[in-house]
Amino acid sequence: MKILAAILFLIILYSLGSALYYMYKDGSNSTRMVRSLSIRIGVSILLFVIMMAYSWFNM
Predict the structure, then answer these.
(1) How far is CA 55 from the centre of its chain?
(2) Which side of the chain, N or C, has fewer Cβ within a 10 Å radius?
């Protein structure tokens, strides 16, 4: 579980960094920035749900 949480956290950080990069490279109207931030939100929600299930089932 700890390895999965660490991997998902690294994916979240990578997505956030790529959104920052696209914001500076493409400007504020970047669709790549929006897509990257959407991925970050989705992975964050997934990590939260997995951690809640882990806590709920006392694994």
Answers:
(1) 20
(2) C
